[in-house]
Amino acid sequence: FLPLKALSGARLVVTLHDYGLVCAKKNFMHLGADLCSGPALAKCLPCAAKHYGAVKAAATTLGNWASSFAARREVDRFIAVSHAVAYHNGLTQGRAPYEVIPNFVPDDVGALGPEDPCLRELPEDEFILFVGDMARLKGIDVLLQAYTGLKRAPPLVLIGRRAADTPTEFPPNVRVFGTWPHSAIMHAWQRSLFGVLPSVGPEACATVIMEAMASGKAVVATDVGGMPDIVDHGQTGLLVPSGDSHALGHAMQTFLDDRALLARLEATGLARIERLKAGAVVTRIEQVYRDVLRPAPGRSAVPAQQGSG
C-alpha cells in the first residue's frame, strides 16, 4: 500500500491491532517471556530467531524495520486500538499522527442465539470463566496456581485452544473445553459468576473482556497492554499485576466473598459497555477518515484521545 500511496497521492489510514510497527513477532514479548523494553537490533534479531528461525528472522526483522520507517513518513493517520499499542509502537514519542480508538463489539452482542449442545457440559451451578488460548502468554499457569489457593471456589471453566505449552494436568474442579462457537461462549458468559483474563503478554485490546461486560459480568484482569483502557479498577472489574498468582487469587477471592461489590461492578460495566459498541466506536473511526480527507496545509502530530470511550 505504501508504494501505491506514494504514486497515487491517496490518503492512508492504518489501524494498529498489535505491536507490529516495532515488533517482528507483533506481541512485544522479548524471547516470549518478558515484556519488551523497546526495539533494538541486537535484541530483535535473536528474539525473532527463536520464533521464526535465523534466516527468516533476519529477513522479517529488517523488512519490518524498513516498512515501519516508511509507514511513519507516509501514513496520514494511525489508529491504535489502545494507549498501550500507541505507546509501545512509538507513536506517543514520535511525530506520526494518530488517534486511540478501541476495538468494538456488535450493538446486539448481548442478544443470545439458540443454545448449542456443548452448553450441557457446563456446571449446573455458578462457575468462574476463562476464554482464550490456554497458553503461558495468556497466564494460564498463573491462573491455575491462583485457583488452587481459593477457598470455597466454584468450578473454573476454561474454553479455548490448546497451545504447545498448555498444561497437561489440571487441578481438581477445573473443566477444560476446546474451541466453542461464539454464540455458545456468549451463553457461557451469561451463566458464569465472573470472568478472569490473567494475560502475561500486553493484550492490545481484549474484546473478550468487552463480551463479558456486555453479558453483565465483572472481570479480573492484569494491568498490562490495553486492559486498563477497558477495565476501570474498582468500578467495572479488578486489575492485578501480571504474573502475580497471589494478587490474582486475592482478587478472585474478593469476588467470591463480596457479592455486593461484584453486583455493583457488573452493573457499572454493563452501563459502560455502550461506549464500546459498534454504534459508538464506528462513528469515531468514520470521523478520522473525514478528517484525513479534509484538505490541510501541512502534516502535524495528533495527540492520542484520553480514555477508550
Short structural description:
The protein has 309 residues and is an alpha/beta fold. The protein contains 11 helices and 11 strands. It has a 6-stranded parallel β-sheet with strand order 8-7-6-9-10-11, with helices on both faces.
Structure description:
This protein has 2 domains: 2-104 and 278-293, no CATH class; 117-275, Glycogen Phosphorylase B (Rossmann fold), CATH 3.40.50. It has helices at residues 2-8, 41-52, 54-74, 83-88, 140-148, 182-191, 207-214, 227-230, 245-257, 259-272, 278-293, and strands at residues 13-16, 29-30, 34-35, 77-80, 98-100, 128-131, 156-159, 174-177, 194-197, 219-222, 237-240. By secondary structure, it is α/β, with parallel strands linked by helices. It is globular, with a radius of gyration of 21 Å. Helix 5 (140-148) crosses helix 9. The strands form 3 sheets. Strands 8-7-6-9-10-11 form a 6-stranded parallel beta sheet, with helices on both faces.
Helices, strands, pairings?
Layout: H1 2-8, E1 13-16, E2 29-30, E3 34-35, H2 41-52, H3 54-74, E4 77-80, H4 83-88, E5 98-100, E6 128-131, H5 140-148, E7 156-159, E8 174-177, H6 182-191, E9 194-197, H7 207-214, E10 219-222, H8 227-230, E11 237-240, H9 245-257, H10 259-272, H11 278-293
Helix pairs in contact: 2-3, 5-9
Q: What is the CATH level 1 assignment of the largest domain?
A: Alpha Beta
Low-confidence runs (pLDDT<50, min 5 residues)?
A: 303-309
Number of strands: 11
Percent of residues in helices comes to 25-40%
Distance between the termini: 30 Å
Principal-axis shape: globular
- Our count of domains comes out at 2
Report strand %.
Answer: 5-15%
Number of helices: 11
Which value, in Å, is the CA radius of gyration?
21 Å
- The CATH superfamily of the largest domain bears the name Glycogen Phosphorylase B
Summing up helix and strand content along with how strands pair, one would put the structural category as alpha/beta
User: Within the largest sheet, what's the order of strands?
Assistant: 8-7-6-9-10-11
CATH architecture of the largest domain: 3-Layer(aba) Sandwich
Major sheet summary line: 6 strands, parallel
Q: What's the SSE pattern?
A: HEEEHHEHEEHEEHEHEHEHHH
CATH topology descriptor of the largest domain: Rossmann fold
Mean pLDDT across residues: 93
